[in-house]
Automatic annotation (TrEMBL):
Keywords assigned by UniProt, alphabetized: Acyltransferase, Membrane, Transferase, Transmembrane, Transmembrane helix
Residue ranges crossing the lipid bilayer per the database entry: 217-245
Phylogenetic classification of the source organism: Bacteria, Bacillati, Bacillota, Bacilli, Lactobacillales
InterPro entries: Plipid/glycerol_acylTrfase
Origin species: Streptococcus suis (strain GZ1)
Gene Ontology annotations of biological process type: phosphatidic acid biosynthetic process
Keyword Membrane attached: yes
Protein name according to UniProt: Phospholipid/glycerol acyltransferase
One Pfam family matching this protein: Acyltransferase
């Protein structure tokens, strides 16, 4: 598989990060030095808590680029579906995921220079870890890179400038597990849960009630308006482009 950079991915990641900074202005990253080397692929895992935590995780791990699973319903909107496909998203049927949910990310981890973002619980509404991440890591022979987001859980809290802490943990190696049967996946789940618990406690220790100085809104509001305008134009471009260029076709060429 040809290794390549995806300019639209980098562009959109930067744009969304600026947007969230302009909205919140109180974002802090910890232990980024623990992130695995750029030339090594891995699975970035975290508890899925909000709509926006994937953006912070993806930005913190830059310049590494990622693919990620997304529920198929998100692709129904023509413009948004094209948008996230160009950023590496691939659709998953949660009710009937099939083997593609395993084969495609394994293939990409082995043959491309893009890593995988995965939320082991599967959704924001579940805390139960599923075994798919263990199978993918073992099949692709990559490590798990745990991270966590601690901060506002609502739009109101985000807009109010409540502190956001994103922390990275110790890589989890699953190569010592011989088989990913029930016992094997249970062991991986145990390791992930322990690291998530440690990370949540670590990130929470930085939390304070202090909010950004209100004067920062003097320059953040113009940035917010500018970024919102650019995002609107980007969506319009994505909608029009979806009639002429299907990102899935480009992904198929890389399989």
């Amino acid at each position: 598989m040809k290794k390549e950079k995806f300019m639209f991915y980098s562009y959109l990641r930067t744009l969304l990060t600026f947007l969230l900074w302009a909205i919140n202005g109180n974002i802090h990253y910890h232990d980024r030095e623990k992130i695995l080397p750029q030339e090594e692929n891995y699975i970035l895992i975290a508890p899925h808590k909000t709509f926006w935590d994937p953006v912070f995780l993806g930005y913190a791990a830059a310049p590494k680029q990622f693919i990620f699973m997304a529920k198929k319903e998100l692709f129904k909107d023509r413009g948004f579906g094209w948008w996230i496909s160009k950023c590496g998203a691939f659709p998953i049927d949660r009710d009937n995921p099939g083997m593609a949910a395993i084969k495609y990310p394994v293939n990409m981890l082995k043959k491309s220079d893009r890593s995988l973002v995965m939320f082991p619980s599967g959704s924001r509404h579940s805390s139960e870890l599923k075994g798919g991440v263990a199978v993918i890591a073992k099949s692709a022979k990559v490590k798990l890179m745990p991270a966590t987001y601690v901060g506002p859980m609502t739009i109101k809290g985000l807009l109010a400038g409540e502190r956001i802490d994103v922390a990275f943990g110790n890589p989890i190696d699953v190569s010592d597990i011989k088989r990913m049967d029930d016992a094997g996946t249970a062991e991986v789940t145990s390791r992930i849960e322990a690291e998530f618990k440690r990370l949540d406690d670590h990130a929470a220790s930085f939390q304070t009630k202090k909010k950004p100085n209100i004067l920062t809104y003097i320059y953040r509001i113009p940035v917010l308006l500018l970024v919102a305008l650019i995002l609107g134009l980007t969506y319009a471009f994505s909608y029009i482009a979806s009639f002429f260029w299907q990102p899935s076709t480009q992904l198929d060429k890389n399989k």
